Give the backbone structure.
Amino acid sequence: MLKSYLKKEGNHLKKKKRKVFGKKIHRKRRQASVFLIWKILLILATFAPLVYGGYTLYDSVYLSEMFLLRKIRVQGQKRLKQSDIQKILHLPSEQHIFDINMRKMVNRLLAHPYVKKAHMTRTLPDTLDVSLEERMPYLIFLYGGHHYEVDEEGYIMRMMNDYREGEEPLVKGIEYLEEKLVVGQRSSSLKMLKALEVLQTFFLSDVAIFLKIKTVDISNIKQVALITRNNIKIYMGGSDFQKKLKALSVILHKKKASIQTASYVDLRFGGVIVRPRKR
């Protein structure tokens, strides 16, 4: 009997302790929740004025006429005019300066055949600054009865309706292209690449100090010929242009006069053959 009674009382005490412990945990959780709510309210009370002030500032800036676009400043242009840049960008008058999609505007500039690199920045309150690097004509090539400007990377810059002989060499002998000719795109024609190769090598050599190139005959890419402004024909072959021009440079430094009066110079056979003009 006594044993049974003690067991019963022990179980009762255990249940009572568990109940008291559970109430304490519940009380602590409730206190923690209340503290968290007060903490959140305090944070909101602290930052609400800042958020509202920031929104008010943004709203006043966005609606202010001070930030309407009024000026476009351009640097680096050589052939393009200020009016050309404005036409390419095609921005509405007095557009808000923060509404302008800068990447889109740069892409519009880069789509122009004359533009190689472009960069744009906002100068507050009302100005766009445009920095350009333009492509420059490196050679002119004749194709299909038309003259085309090409830069040093092989990009077709424009079809010329007003061709006149100028500083850029004229490339002849391109009867067909392996691709569709598109102004603004880079040519991968074998003849075009060969013409660029021989001209770039020539302009980097000492020979360019003495002789100026008028025409490049690319009819046969294995038998490239250069014609100077004083009508000397230089037979280059189809490869080893640097080595051949170096040999010619040595002769020019020693016997400039003999070359200047030559009918042609042949560099195809490992040496320098100079043929005098007939008198």
Summary: The mean pLDDT is 85. Residues 137-276 form a domain with the Rossmann fold fold (CATH 3.40.50.11690). The CA atoms of residues 26 and 171 lie 92 Å apart. The two ends are 150 Å apart (CA to CA).
